[in-house]
User: Which sequence fits this backbone?
């Protein structure tokens, strides 16, 4: 089956590095979904404002490959343990389809048609969207779900030291989200490599940091 | 993007009529996911047994169309009110992709490779599967989600009168699920059309019934 791109989502994530590994981890990140011309029909959204959350089905656009590997190494397991691809949400899958639930914050009427404003999207800027569905609590929410290694995900939180003079360089409305992103440890895998400096792009800024034990220290901020 | 079929799901639903409109409504329905030869690799499932629930991304194989309509008429609204397609889970969408959460009941080792046995699948027998992902409670479960008309879905339950002599014709392991399916009102829309007889196929049986007010009466059962 050939999928049609119905929309694109515009976010503050210009690079893969630093994107939360699941949606909703950083609720402060705001994305805007702009429909392609053919799908720019206000009536296609009739009733959507009655929902607080939506599903997005989208393309892992930086992970499209011809071949596939039956196993992947999830970053949350340190990057050196192999798991079955269907037991993970890795982008490297036979069909590079992403699934994210986001919060519907509002609908804007713009020259590009109705734009859905959503919160918590863990998605690269400009990513193609294939489908948008309402989140239905009675069928989508499983309180009793059990979930392997992902259950322990909160253990990975870092303390963030963001010096005031560097934080002042960041536009105020982006600060909380950025700190949350950093506290979720954007590094590709877990090492206590205090000397290595990482660079992460967010909302037009380049943010540099180091991590030692459970403390992330921001070392520099530049406009990109 | 061209999607590859990675597996097919085999269920007791040989016809679209009678399939629950969302997954999990009838937990007693059991499906078996058989991988296509290319994807029949046991290591691709490594770790999946640590999860209680899975997401399936699949093709609405009976709803593939070249064109699309921005609005649809959800059966739960009586079939005469139009809603935006992106505000519904209707199969008639620009990309006919279905999304269902199912319970992982077990993994069978068979001559067709590892088979995932799942509960609650609202999916037609033989449906192509494009992706399988673990259900992650911390990111997929939104207790606080609000949801338009679908919130009232339980109001549509029917009482079921299944005469003993007819029930006896049904294999015992299929009875509970069938009664749950009937109680969820499989009719395409809501009418108090006491005279009309409907026929529904399930698990190799043809079940006939009528509905008057909130009572569904089974009128006949045949082996198909």
Assistant:
């Amino acid at each position: 089956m050939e999928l049609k791109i119905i929309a694109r989502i515009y976010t503050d994530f210009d690079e893969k590095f630093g994107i939360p590994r699941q949606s909703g981890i950083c609720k402060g990140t705001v994305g805007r979904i702009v429909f392609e011309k053919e799908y720019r029909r206000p009536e296609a959204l009739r009733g959507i404002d009655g929902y607080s959350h939506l599903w997005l089905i989208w393309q892992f656009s930086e992970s499209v490959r011809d071949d596939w590997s039956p196993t992947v190494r999830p970053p949350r397991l340190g990057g050196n343990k192999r798991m079955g691809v269907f037991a993970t949400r890795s982008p490297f899958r036979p069909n590079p389809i992403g699934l994210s639930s986001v919060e519907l914050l509002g609908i804007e009427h713009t020259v590009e048609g109705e734009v859905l404003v959503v919160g918590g999207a863990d998605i690269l800027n400009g990513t193609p969207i294939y489908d948008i569905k309402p989140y239905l609590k009675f069928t989508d929410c499983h309180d009793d779900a059990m979930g392997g290694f992902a259950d322990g995900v909160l253990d990975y939180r870092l303390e963030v030291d963001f010096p005031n003079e560097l934080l002042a360089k960041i536009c105020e409305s982006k600060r909380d989200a950025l700190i949350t992103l950093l506290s979720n440890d954007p590094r590709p895998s877990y090492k206590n490599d205090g000397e290595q400096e990482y660079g992460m792009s967010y909302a037009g800024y380049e943010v540099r940091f180091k991590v030692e034990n459970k403390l992330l220290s921001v070392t520099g901020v530049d406009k990109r």
